[in-house]
Amino acid sequence: xxxxxxxxxxxxxxxxxxxxxxxxxxxxxxxxxxxxxxxxxxxxxxxxxxxxxxxxxxxxxxxxxxxxxxx
Length: 71
Prior knowledge:
This protein is mainly β. It has one domain (2-70). 10% of the residues lie in helices and 55% in strands. The chain is built from one helix and five strands; from the N terminus they run ββαβββ. It has a three-stranded antiparallel β-sheet, with no helix packed on it. It has a two-stranded antiparallel ribbon with strand order 3-4. The N and C termini lie close together (6 Å). The mean pLDDT is 92.
C-alpha cells in the first residue's frame, strides 16, 4: 500500500505530518476537506489505528505535500 505524506503547518509554528492512502480520490482527501471547510470548521485528521486529532481550520496556515511511501 502507498501513502501520501502531508505536512500541516499550524499558526503556532508546529508542523503535523499525516499520511493518506495514495489511491484515495482527491475529492475525499485531506486537501479537498480543507478547501471546502469554512474558517470556523474543525478538520478531523487520523484513523482508527493511530487515533484522531481535531484542528480548527483557522489554525492551519497551509498544507504541503511530502513523500509517497510504501507501507
